[in-house]
Structure formats: structure tokens, C-alpha cells
Design a protein that fits this description.
With about 675 residues, this protein is an alpha+beta fold. It is built from 20 helices and 26 strands. A hairpin with a 2-residue loop joins strand 21 and strand 22. Helix 6 crosses helix 9, helix 12 packs parallel to helix 14 and helix 13 packs antiparallel against helix 14.
Length: about 675
């Protein structure tokens, strides 16, 4: 029998404070967590929704060094951006803290010290790379060298970004320090490790036997790790930025960020409820849920529970409804390449459209597999669903009430079968909606909610009150009564998903207090109540809006390519006589057309000063034929003719490849007679 809990603690992965949050974070973690928290509150349950910024670790020190500021400057900046953006999107944290707070420093230190005093750590000495000039041990990200797999000379010590291979700093060829540029040396250092292998049998039973109801992606990843065998994991590292290891003789060592960060859930709860925090973490009548992305499954299902087991006295998570990844325009979101939709920019560039983003991200939530966000889909869902279905129904119901009854809510007369069918459908859908939310199927829940709006539209189409008003005002009153009561139901149903729309709709209906139990009731609005003036809940999004966002992505991608671009290596030396054999000349394009059945090829007729020639070139992707007619180009005149797609090509037009892969035809800057030699 499933246990009933008195309260629920909801945690959401702590966003890393070296940059803002993007739609991948929102779809994977924060929107579903907020939907669930709002749902439980509507049910009248006791809830604590905990969030906060993760503010320690190497990436923050790298960004600070790059910008010439302190790590604290970096986290202060991004903590504010992230916190403010969440608030504007309507994410209802009960507390949004940070891991640089004094409460967190104290809590994390005490947690480590408890495990240390209980003998739960093992101490190991190993050799790590050390920068003698800087006087620091080097985190993997601070080591740069040649990738042993692809030869990239600027691979990081943890990963080669050219080929994507995961590395260790000692794998690199010719490693150098990113701090000083010097060659690092191996030096012995000691650290404390959490022996995960000790807790493997307990974790195996707790997860594989006791939590088979977890999502398949979560359960499967945990099983894979457990089947491979768990290994001890370092809980400290040599770094200046972080929480100092609270052990004598541990100067220069801090808590590893993976150990430090999840304790932030506890410290943030302490800040929210200093006197009663233990009921959220230690009372067996409290259920704990972790909302995370798939890259954090192991930490929240294996590592953090092992920490809690080792400490003793803490609850373990009841469920971890982790999501997969959200792609953007069919490509993986990349913060380093600026291929992302940043929340703070979205809020500025599309003001008042928080609910649209929440709706689209929920509709495309990557619950079972990676999913995709496109601006065209964003536009289509807004225009075809929010405007045409939900917004249309509410607007028609309120407009007709004003038209025929002066905005005074009409009384309900005798109900007919069509009325009873709608009421029954809403009540049936409530059960489906509740089941979907209880089992963390938020996409399905949103679909069911929209089905209620579809049912309302169908009801108005079937009853046609605008026609009945000519002959039967009593029946018209009943129809609009049912329609407005349905609107009131929708205001409750959509509150977890689109809270701003729900608040506006409630205001139009002069409603205030709502609860989940009210769904399915058709006496929510009293007869004679004043209905507010109708206003559109959603507006159409024009092509120009989404085209601007797509163009912004393309420009960011182009800028990133330009920043990353470097010239190709100089080819093997050739002597001057060899170069002289190349006959490069200037020609004028007389005609240009596409080669049939060849997307990349253009066919040129060139005035070469010698009677003319035909040349085929693979630049169709970058030029329209008409743009090249009359243009002077450089071509190689003494290439042996060869047939391309049935056309004999008598030379080669010269072009340069830009950083973004675009080919640019090379020609003289001033007018030159066709046939002139280049040399």
C-alpha cells in the first residue's frame, strides 16, 4: 500500500552561477518542478519548494580569471540574473538561496565533519599536475594540451571540445598550465574520498528493489552504474575558491563542488525555516522529490543518498522525476557556442509572454527522450492552441455574456443533455489530469487540460447561443452560465501551467480563492455576479517575431565561428618553378546557370581573352547565378579539362573559405582585361 505523507519537500537542481539559465534548464527542471509545487498547493498540501544557485567550482574561477574579476563578482552577478528571471517567469520557490551564504558554509562544513568524525571517508594520496610558477595544483580545466585522439592542440584536461572525447589531464600530449603557460609537473597530494562501494549493496536494494516505479531513464541509468560497480569518489580538491575543508592541516583544500552543492538543499531549507527545517529533512512523514536533468541522475540517486546514509538521520528521496535534454532548432544547446534561448533575454524581448514559454516547454517536455524546441513550433502552438482554442473559448463566452446580459452572470435554468455531457466530460478529465500530475506526466496533463478548453469550444458550437438569443433568452442564459462556469474551471486547471493567464481570467470572472477540489463544480460563479470586460488572454505571434529570434541564433552561431576560427596550417613548401607552373588568369563571367540535378554546381561561360571557356564550380550554395554575371573572377587556366555532371569544365574558379564555411569568389579589386595573368 502506498504511504501517505503529511508534507512534500521539492528540490530543483541548483543552476550553476557562471551564466544565466536557458530553455533547456527550464524544460528539464524548473517548469515541471513549479507545476508540481503549484498543483500540491492547490490541493491544500504542505509544500516546501527549494532552489538556489550553485556558486563554487572551477568554471566560476575560469570565468573570473578571464574577465579579470573575483569569483564572488561572477556569482553575485549571475545569482541576481537567475533569481530575478525565475521570479518573472513565475517559478514559486519558497526559498532561492545560494551556496556562498554563511548558513551554507556552516551546514556543509558540519556535514563533512560529521562524516569525517564517524570515519566514513578514506584518505588517499595521488599525483596531480601542479603549476610551479603559479604555486597551485591544476584542476583538469586548467590544463591545456594536444588531444591524443584527434590532435587538437587546445584540448582541455577534462574534454576535447574538437572531438568530444572525455579526457584526464594526464592524457594530454605536451600539457601546459592555463594559469602561467608553463609545463606542469606531477606532485603528490592527499584527499578524502567517499567510499561509494561500501554503500553499493544498500543502494542496490533501495533503488532496484524498492523504487521500480521510478522513470525508466532514471532507473536504467542507476542500474547501469550499480552493475558496473561503484568506486570511491573524492570529496575534496586543491582549489582556492570553495568551502575550506574543516580539518586541521587541510589548508588550500576545499569541498568538491559535487559534495558541497546538494547540501545546499539543506542549508536553503534552514534559511527558509530555521526552527522547523528538520521536519522537512528528517521526519518520515515528509516526502522528498528531486527535479533534475538526466546529467544529474547519478548524483541525486546514488551519490547524495550515499552521503545521507553515511550521515544518518536524513530522509532519502521518494522519487527523482528526471528529464532528458531539450535541443534547440535540431541542435544540442551549447552555452559555449551561445546556441541557446536565454531566459532573461526572452523576458526582455517577448514581454508578457511568460505563459507562452511555460506552455510550449511543457508541451515539448523531454520526459522520456530528448525533445526539440523550434521557434516555428513556438509560434504554431501559441497561434493554433492558446489563441485559437483556449483564448477563443474564453473570449466568446465573456463577449456573449456582455452582449446579451450586460456583463451580469445569468442564472442557470433546466439542464439539457448537451449541458450534462459537458459537465460530465470536465469531471472525467479532472480524474485524468490528476492522475497525470500525480505520476509526473506533465505533457499528458497539459494535453488533458487543453482538452477541457476544446470541450468548451465544441459546446458553444453545438448550442449556438448567438442564434438562440433571438428566440429563447432563458436557454441562452443557461448555455452562457455553463460556458462561464467552464471558464472558471479552466482558470483552476491551468494555474499550475500558466499562472499569469489564470490570474487574469479569475480577475475577469471576479474570482479569487481557488482549490483543486473546485474542478468539476459548476457553481463557482454566483448568479448576478458582475463579469469583467473581456480582454484577449493571448495574441497572435507574427512571422517577423520568430524570424528575428531565428536570425539572432544564426548571428550568434556565426559570431562564435568567427571567434573560434583560426587559419589552416601552411601546407608543405613548394619551390618557385613549381608555383610558376600554375597559370592563374582573370576572366569575366558572361553567363552563369545551375547545373541540372546538381545542387552544388554552377556552370560559367567565361570571357578569358582567348575565345572563351566553360568552367563548372561548386559554389551554388553561396551565390545566385544572376549575382555573378558581369563579375571578374580569377581562374586556373591550365587545369586538364574534366567532365562534371555531364558538363566539360575547362579550369577552376578560385574562392576563399570563410570561418562559417562560406565560399567567396576571388577577383581583382579593379577592372582588368580578360585573360590577364595573375602572378
Amino acid at each position: 500500500m502506498e504511504k501517505k505523507f503529511k508534507r512534500t519537500l521539492i528540490t530543483s537542481a541548483l543552476p550553476y552561477a557562471n551564466g544565466p539559465v536557458h530553455i533547456g534548464h527550464l524544460a528539464g527542471v524548473y517548469v515541471p518542478a513549479d507545476i508540481y509545487a503549484r498543483y500540491l498547493r492547490l490541493k491544500g498540501e504542505e509544500v516546501m519548494f527549494v532552489g538556489g544557485s550553485d556558486e563554487h567550482g572551477v568554471p566560476i574561477t575560469i570565468r573570473a580569471r578571464k574577465e579579470g574579476v573575483t569569483p564572488q563578482d561572477i556569482v553575485d552577478r549571475y545569482h541576481k540574473i537567475i533569481k530575478d528571471s525565475f521570479e518573472e517567469l513565475g517559478i514559486t520557490f519558497d526559498v532561492y538561496g545560494r551556496t556562498t551564504s554563511e548558513t551554507h558554509r556552516k551546514t556543509a562544513s558540519e556535514f563533512f565533519r560529521t562524516l569525517y568524525d564517524k570515519g566514513e571517508f578514506v584518505e588517499k594520496t595521488s599525483e596531480q599536475l601542479y603549476d610551479e610558477e603559479a604555486g597551485e595544483f591544476l584542476a583538469d580545466r586548467y590544463v591545456v594540451g594536444t588531444c591524443p585522439h584527434c590532435g587538437n592542440e587546445n584540448a582541455y584536461g577534462d574534454q576535447c571540445e574538437a572531438c568530444g572525447t572525455s579526457l584526464s589531464a594526464t592524457d594530454l600530449i605536451n600539457p601546459r598550465s592555463a594559469l602561467s603557460g608553463s609545463t606542469p609537473v606531477l606532485k603528490a597530494t592527499s584527499h578524502w574520498y567517499l567510499p561509494l562501494d561500501k554503500w553499493e549493496p544498500t543502494l542496490r536494494k533501495w533503488i532496484l528493489d524498492d523504487h521500480q516505479e521510478w522513470r525508466p531513464n532514471v532507473y536504467g541509468q542507476c542500474k547501469s552504474w550499480l552493475d558496473m560497480g561503484l568506486q570511491p569518489r573524492a570529496v575534496s580538491r586543491d582549489l582556492k575558491w570553495g568551502i575550506p575543508v574543516p580539518v586541521e592541516g587541510a589548508e588550500g583544500k576545499v569541498l568538491y563542488v559535487w559534495f558541497d552543492a546538494p547540501i545546499g538543499y539543506i542549508s536553503n531549507t534552514i534559511d527558509a525555516d530555521p526552527e522547523g527545517w528538520e521536519k522537512w529533512w528528517k521526519d518520515p512523514d515528509t516526502r522528498m522529490l528531486h527535479f533534475i536533468g538526466k546529467d544529474n541522475i547519478v548524483f541525486h540517486c546514488i551519490v547524495f543518498p550515499a552521503m545521507l546514509m553515511a550521515h544518518g538521520g536524513y530522509n532519502l528521496p521518494d522519487n527523482v522525476p528526471a528529464n532528458e535534454f531539450l535541443n534547440l532548432e535540431d541542435k544540442k544547446i551549447s552555452t559555449s557556442r551561445n546556441w541557446a534561448v536565454w531566459l532573461h533575454e526572452y523576458l526582455r524581448e517577448l514581454p508578457g509572454k511568460q505563459d507562452v514559454l511555460r506552455y510550449v516547454l511543457t508541451a515539448n517536455a523531454p520526459e522520456a527522450k530528448d525533445n526539440n524546441f523550434t521557434w516555428k513550433d513556438f509560434q504554431a502552438r501559441n497561434n493554433n492552441e492558446l489563441v485559437a482554442i483556449l483564448g477563443n473559448f474564453v473570449n466568446r463566452a465573456i463577449v456573449l455574456t456582455h452582449k446579451y446580459f450586460g456583463g451580469v452572470f445569468p442564472p442557470q435554468g433546466e439542464l439539457q443533455e448537451v449541458d450534462l455531457n459537458l459537465i460530465e466530460q470536465i469531471r472525467t478529465l479532472k480524474g485524468e489530469l490528476t492522475e497525470a500530475l500525480d505520476t509526473f506526466h506533465f505533457r499528458e496533463a497539459l494535453r488533458v487540460a487543453m482538452d477541457m478548453a476544446r470541450a468548451g469550444n465544441k459546446y458553444l458550437q453545438e448550442t449556438e447561443p448567438w442564434k438562440l438569443a433571438k428566440t429563447d433568452m432563458a436557454r441562452t442564459a443557461t448555455i452562457l452560465n455553463i460556458a462561464i462556469q467552464t471558464c472558471a474551471n479552466l482558470a483552476i486547471v491551468f494555474e499550475p501551467f500558466m499562472p499569469f493567464m489564470s490570474a487574469r481570467l479569475l480577475k475577469m470572472l471576479n474570482g479569487d480563492k481557488i482549490s483543486w477540489d473546485m474542478i468539476g463544480c459548476f457553481d463557482l460563479v454566483p448568479s448576478g455576479a458582475e463579469i469583467g470586460a473581456p480582454e484577449l488572454l493571448f495574441e497572435k505571434i507574427e512571422d517577423s517575431v520568430v524570424e528575428a529570434q531565428v536570425q539572432k541564433l544564426k548571428e550568434a552561431e556565426k559570431q562564435n565561428l568567427l571567434e573560434q576560427w583560426k587559419p589552416a596550417e601552411v601546407k608543405e613548401e613548394v619551390d618557385f618553378p613549381t608555383f610558376e607552373k600554375m597559370d592563374i588568369r582573370v576572366g569575366k563571367v558572361l553567363e552563369c546557370k545551375k547545373v541540372p540535378k546538381a545542387d552544388k554546381l554552377l556552370q560559367f561561360r567565361i570571357d578569358d581573352g582567348m575565345g572563351g571557356r566553360t568552367i563548372v564550380s561548386g559554389i551554388a550554395k553561396f551565390y545566385a547565378p544572376a549575382d555573378l554575371v558581369g563579375k571578374e573572377v580569377c581562374f586556373i587556366a591550365n587545369f586538364a579539362p574534366r567532365k562534371l555532371k555531364g558538363v566539360m569544365s575547362e579550369g577552376m574558379i578560385l574562392s576563399a573559405e570563410d570561418a562559417d564555411g562560406r565560399l567567396v569568389v576571388i577577383g581583382p579589386t579593379g577592372e582588368v582585361r580578360p585573360g590577364s595573368s595573375v602572378g
